[in-house]
Amino acid sequence: MIKFIAKRLGSGLVVLFVVSALTFTLLYISSGSIAQNILGDQATPEQVALKEQELGLDQPLVTRYFAWLGDALTGNLGASWFTSEPVANSLATRIPVTMTMVFTAMILIALCAALIGVAAAVKRGWVDRVVQIGAIVGDSIPGYVIGVFLVTILAIQLGLFPATSTISPEVGPEAWVVSMTLPVIALLINGVTGGAQQIRSAVIKQLERDYVRTLRSRGIGEREILFKHVLRSAAPAGLTVLSLQLIGMLGGVVIIEQIFALPGMGPLAVAATGQSDLPVVMGVVMYTVVVVIVVNLLVDILNGWLNPKVRVS
Amino acid sequence: MSTSVEAPKNAPLLSVENLVVEYPSKRFRAKPFRALTDINITIGQGETLGLVGESGSGKTTLGRAVLGLAPVTAGKVIFEGNDISNASRKERRTLSRDLQVVFQDPYTSLNPALEIGDILAEPLAVQGMEPAAAKKRVRELLDQVGLPSDAIHRLPREFSGGQRQRVAIARALALSPKLIVCDEPVSALDLSTQARVLDLFLQIQRDTGVSYLFVSHDLDVVRHISHRVAVMYHGEIVEQGPAEVVTRDPEHPYTQRLLLASPVPDPDRQEQRRADRHRLLANQQRQNEQAGAVA
Amino acid sequence: MSDSIDSSAVTADAAGLAAKPGTGQSGTVVRSTVMRRLIRNPLGIASLVILGTIAILAIFAPVLAPFEENFANISKTLAPADSVNILGTDSAGRDTWSRLLFGAQLTLLSALLCAGVAIAIGLPAGLIAGYYAGKFEAVSNWVVSILMSLPGLIVLLTIRAAFGPSVWISMIAFGVLISPSYFRLTRTAVQSVRNELYVDAARVSGLSDLSIIARHIFSVVRAPIIIQTAAIAGVAIAIQSGLEFLGLGDPTKATWGVMLSEGFKNVYLTPTLLLWPALAMALTIGGLVLLGNAIRDALEDGEKIKHRKKRSVATAEGTTAEPAKARQSRKSVAAVELGTEHHLIKVTNLGVGYPQADGSVKKVVDDVSFHVDRGEILGIVGESGSGKSQTAFSILGLLPDNARIVGGSIQFDGNYTVAPGDDRVNQERLSKLRGKRISYIPQEPMSNLDPAFTIGYQLVTPMVRVLGITKAEARTRALKLLTDVGIANPERTFDAYPHEVSGGMAQRVLIAGAISCEPDLVIADEPTTALDVTVQADVLDLLRELQQRLNIGVILVTHNFGVVADLCDRVAVMQNGRLVEEGTVRDILRNPKEQYTQTLLGSMLEGKTPMTMLVTPQKEPVA
Fold first, then answer.
1. Would the CA dihedral through A169, A174, A179, A182 be positive or negative?
2. Residue C9 with chain B: CB contacts under 8 Å
3. pLDDT digits over C19-32, tens only?
């Protein structure tokens, strides 16, 4: 098992390296004259050249990448070209906000989707139909459109929630929870509808397996068959669904934070993108990839625990 | 060596010499998996060689090696005097005129998306036959295997297992081959269907003089259709000879076990056979123990 | 219709075929029937109409739109709908309806571009990886795992930072990013057919790899690709609009995302500005999702027909895996007929059927009666589709959910489990009997053990639940049982997972499980069919020995008369759901009265002269 984890961790690091190299190349090779961009159109060629030297842009790309990598390994991700704030610092203040939302939403999705999906698979009938229709509706409306309408109707028209959520946890947990409710709902609706649908199919597939019939013939109760055998076999499929949803959510949360004016990664990423503030963009990408790698590792470990065949090989 | 029962046999049509088949292992640097060891068989013109064995014995692999669908690690497959063990795809195309196949599962051996007519025309088109001539040949084939000619425009799923197997046989016959490798062609069929398909195989052999390499796990089937029989066990041929001898009075201990394990449809004779089998197993065990004690 | 052709073909073999000619349909059957099913499905036609309308509006946007996309009438901002601006204007005085139309154009084109790029990369890569496997597959799998771990929007932000605001560049990038979905789809589909026998047959015919892919493999991925494209176009629209909503799109273009953002900025003044782009998006994406679903449904209908023969009872719509509820409300169950209580099991005029979509009921068991006493083995013999397994499952109460008892009764040890008039098995009663007094030996050893639990666990749990003994006691008993069924090293097998033992061993384990709670009746459904002949002989010996020692009644479902002769006291022959003939094993095997039984026995090879015709009349050789 430890060997298995070490192997996965190793391949995660390789992915991290490859993605950072690719992103770095992509960003710096294509974005024209960066210094000109920062200084504006009035800058003289001398000023531009000076700025380029200051940012190290006169060096070859490979040198710059390894310089960045060396710094990154010590926790230094460079500084914003526009605010001069160290990227690591901006990430440190914003990641908690985003991660709280993402993980709250993920846990709720896992619970709701599993509950509804299993209920639909077992009870069939109207629950099943609701899940099917829900999945279609959920797939049809992007999460941020739902967010926009939640704000418009619940916050602005009805005044039940604050329209923006620029409240820090210090103001008191209650107000904070209230302010986070809408963004989290906007984040999780697609996840719940899609997840429930997929968990439903996974459970139905397991319920049709031969061994379920044999368990019944042995006098094992329906509840035990469902919770001990069927759910366990369906779990890997469910975990894969959830991990893919989490990856998607790391993108979706950017828009949601923008809608609710939350001080998370979203506004930082959007602003940096708009200005081509490359060190910040690089930092955002790195943070995302790290989160994904950690989540995938957890999923792999859980799957190994659930499936004896994986453990053996 | 074995003697021919009915079939005339000068130079054999097919001879397999010292054949070895190994599959590379999936695992890094692991030893390859040896599926067949030192196989020697021959098939004469108009002759049927039955190949019998249990799952994992390598009988299917031997058929596939003859067809070029399994990797030949060592040894030779000689067809009409030419070594075809490593024939290229192009050589196979020429070879396919004389060497054909009928597979076990009539549900997956026909492409479900193609009409029967297209399935049967495929081998003809590969040989460059004109569409009109091919169409005529397809009708002949359907007639030969006892299917109505309106089957041409129907899909495999509209037919039952036995009918599909007839289509597969028709496809194998399309180019009037000299040898057909039959890989468990009746095992997926119901009893009464099996009987009719076996009749068809026999009839075709009488009409066309084709040879069969007939692979089956069922000793009764092999006895019924073969001139000679080879018995496979753990990737090797343990016994071969005239069908009557091998399937009724075998020499090798494994073939003896195989014969007595197959139940007969009469309670009293089966009781007798069961007793014979228990006696045989006891004897063989005693011999093994003695052999072990000596060694 | 194809349905009727198929269902009749199921039962008839070549000999019977002559009776049903003329129904053949011609032409390109596969695609036309899928298309027809799609149009017949209300959701399918609705999605086609929605998408068609939007596409027409988009194509003719320059003609239909009353204004240029960026034409601004500064004197008429945030205006409500009127005859000039039929949906009103935005904060810059631009016509909402015109911008919606131009937005549609851009949105659809960008979705097409994205899907096009993704297919252009994913399809060939998937075909090559699936067909040739090897290094290419390993490398592409690795690339795919990286691409799939990157959130789309984050990548698009990076692309935007690098290349500036271009719809086309971002959609090409997203196409690349999402190409793994096509890659995996194609690879899986190709892998599933690569080893199909018809591909082998094509190889034997000397077809080149390219022809094999074009002819036999591409047709398999075609439909899934269309479904996938519908889904991906939807995702592309959502993400592209999201980018524009964030203000990172091309500012000179009218798009739904920009309009949504514009509406959101003016949400306090004119909330309706939000509604139109949101509605347009939901309709388009929803149309695509529905279309994908409808195509899938249409294809699955075809699948069902295709596999009818294999799974004549197919899967279920019906209700519940909690069957206890089905008949709970039923009052006291009637007493069985006097003088029949002593039979261990008695089946009287049993009928089992499956309600069809058209309201009819397809009977798979019809008017079947037999009984089994203690210590007796009854063989039920028949070919596929004879209803023998369905009969066995109705005794066990393990019929699929949508099955109905359409007639007759079943009584076990003097009590009804299916009383006359019931349309379902009485699960309340049977759940008390199952495992304890009636048990089951399945056909396929491997698939009937849960791969996630050890063999020991799967033996111990039923004993703990049914007999109420402790785990330690159950373990002792399980080890004893494993020894009893002839397993040499019971402890090692006890701790093994199912994938670690052979098929014959797994079948012994299942037999051990079936007798673990000392049942009175064992129902064995083709218990040796999946085994090699020599293993079959051992398992038959085992069954006989156990049956005699425990004096249990056995119902042995099989197609093999040899197995019947070996084990059974009495035999019932079934055909097409009906019981043809029943009697002692010697009577039936030696002097069958019914034509069908005679035909079946006549098809046996044992005792026939080799190389002679079995059922067909002898013909003179042509050559």
1. positive
2. 158-160, 163
3. 333 333 333 444 56
